[in-house]
Amino acid sequence: MRRASSLPMTITPTGQEYIAGQLNSRNLEQAVRGLHEDGLIVVSGVVPHGDLDHLNTKMVQDARALQARGKDMPFNYNVGNIQQDPPPVKSFFSSSIFLNPIASQITTCMLGPKPKWTFCSGNTALPPVEGTEPQRQPVHTDADYAHPTHPFALVVNVPLIRFTPENGSTEVWLGTHTGDLAGLQVQDGAHGERASGRIKKHLLEQRMTVRGPSQPVIEKGSIVIRDLRLWHAGMPNLSRDERVMLAMIHFAPWYRNQMKLELSESTKPIVEGQSQLEVPVQWVSEEMAEERYLNRGFGNSYDFGQIA
């Protein structure tokens, strides 16, 4: 049996796999095993740096605009960590980021054919503001509602820069996505509250003796795939630069989540040009998309549940 490390498994595709947009059977097996056992894997070197840089420049500008709203910004748990959507328009909508074929291959193997992509946002850790104390998020789960006990949703995270403990790499608690560690019984707070999904303190202390958390370094160009149920926490950014991480959720095809993406019609050829995912979309004009995408809720205000 593989030793239960606090650090996540990293898969490095070969050049041939990268060009094909598909992992070979051995790497795919490793990815599936890591998600079942740990609840999180890292796939390195699959997103071109130029695509990341182009989007990061825009999203850093947007992050500063959101920060200027003060207490009205869509923050998650504390004002150093904000919910931030990427611009849903063609000029920033790179398929290597939003529709990465290797990410979709992995989520398909875990969830079934044509997972549903119904959520697209981001999480930005802001640099410290003079006179304020940097804060971390409480350890929490994003599944802060009644949910299945088997895999039903995977978060595809795309860091836009290299992630380190200094700039707020996410703290992860591997192996906490299943069994007695998952479910409403381990949580404080009700769904819809800004601080819902918090893991009870005594359970954190117990888990620490078995398998503690880690704050891994994630290289630029990587994709992180995480089970929605996994315990994790946003950490303070002690650097001088904004740290942006995208978050796309792929739900199992049988999971009856009713959310839809809101995308500009300019992205339609890109979305409809792929066949790996089902993508429920409300199409809007580019002008409307640009007006609306920065006026979203905070993370826990979204409804990831399924209808009866």
TrEMBL record:
Pfam families: PhyH (PF05721). SUPFAM superfamilies: Clavaminate synthase-like (SSF51197). This is Phytanoyl-CoA dioxygenase. InterPro entries: Fungal_Metabolite_Diox (IPR051961), Phytyl_CoA_dOase-like (IPR008775).
